[in-house]
Each structure stands twice: as structure tokens, then as C-alpha cells.
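[User] Once you have settled down, look closely at the record that follows, and write a paragraph about the fold.
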Amino acid sequence: MSERTIYRDFETMEHAGFFIDRKDGFYRIDPEKQDRHSMKIFNVAEDNLVAEDGYYYRIEKKYDGVRKNPELSESLLIVKKLFRAIRLKKQVWVMDYRSTNSNSIYKRLVEPIEFSFEKQGVWAYEIASEKCKRFKISRIGDIIITNKEFVAQSKHLIPFTDIFNFSSACPIDTIILKLDFKAYYLFCEEFPDVSKLIKEKDYHILNVPVAAYEGIGRFVLGLIDHIEVIQSIEFKRYLRKMVAGLK
């Protein structure tokens, strides 16, 4: 092991919250001196955070990123709190939520229901609006678990969400696209649900229901020379309108 590797490991451990004493050429971890805020993340690893869908959100797999990224540590702690609230069926305050729709920052009282893909967001019933909404974990400042039990479980109705992360009560259309190799490669890179792709001779067919045209429209317009829209007529009209607006 090289000297550089050893120093890099020491630096990594300090990022994780350990205090390393350096004296007379010797190094030791002082168990009495630890950054409590940073060390909280190790408690998350002990819980494993098992979701109902069987997804294990293990800190060990993301360990290198966690100890070098304070924002990731905060996000994982938020996920832990949400898991607990869902399990106990307790209402929570979503603190300092940065909303792009209203362009504001405020808190919301919600009943968390379940996580979206890879725990990037959480579906929750908002008490004030009486609607189920998806809150992005990265935009949440903090989660405060209350002592209030769920009061609206009959209204915990999660809307349809398409592979482009748009939601609606039900699909508005089914789109069929023909993708060349470049479009196929970029699709697989950006979107995880490749089960919707059907392999043909030298191209792929994408057949997907969508909740809105914005997500899939953005994808098609970005690769306009590599994608052929087979269906639907309404989607083609949407694309023509978008292209006309760019002129």
C-alpha cells in the first residue's frame, strides 16, 4: 500500500466524522472525539432501510459517496425518517421544500405513502390541498415526524407515473417510437425502464403509455434525426407545435 493511499484513507475517514490524532509520526482514531452530525449516517446503515418493494437502501453500497458528500448524507437521513413515518403511519412536516411550480420555499404537512423509483422522491398525501403529490428528496430541507396518526388513508391514491417521471390520474396516450442505435443507447443511459423496448433487426421499438407529452417530447426533440414517431397523431401535433414555437 502506498503512502498516498494511506493519507487518502485518513482523509476519507475524517470526512466520515472520525477524528484522527497525529502525534510523533503515529496516527490513531480517538473514540471520544467524533463529529456526531456526520456519524449519524452510520445509524442508517444499521437499519438497512427495507422498503415494501424489497429494495435495500444500504449505505454500504453508497459509502464512498456519503462520506465525501454532506448533501447525500442529509438526503439519506431524510429517507430514513420517511421510512419510519411510513412504517408507523405518522404525519410529517416536510420542511423548507423548494417548489419549482410555485417558485417558493415552505413547509407542508403530509402523510407519506411510498417512495418513487430508487427513492428519488416520496408520494405523500398533502393535508392542505387534499391531494397526493410527489416530493423530490433533493428538495426537502428536513423531515419532522409528528405524533399525529394518518387520517386520510382512503385518499392515498397514487397517480399513474410514466417512465419520464410525469404523473396524471391515468395515461393520456400511448406512444410508439422507432429508435436507431444512438437513440436506443441514450434512452438506456437516461431511463431505467428498458423493458418497454422491443429489439428488431437494426432498430428498437419503444411502446409506452405516458402521463404527459413534455417528458417524451423532450426526449424525441433532442434526438429528432434518430427517432421516428409511429404513434400517435396527437403526439405528432404536439411535436409540430413545439418545433413551430422554436422558430
Remarks:
- Residues 35-67 have pLDDT under 50 and may be disordered.
- Helices lie at 3-15, 36-47, 63-68, 70-88, 181-190, 213-222, 233-246.
- The first strand starts at residue 18 and ends at 23.
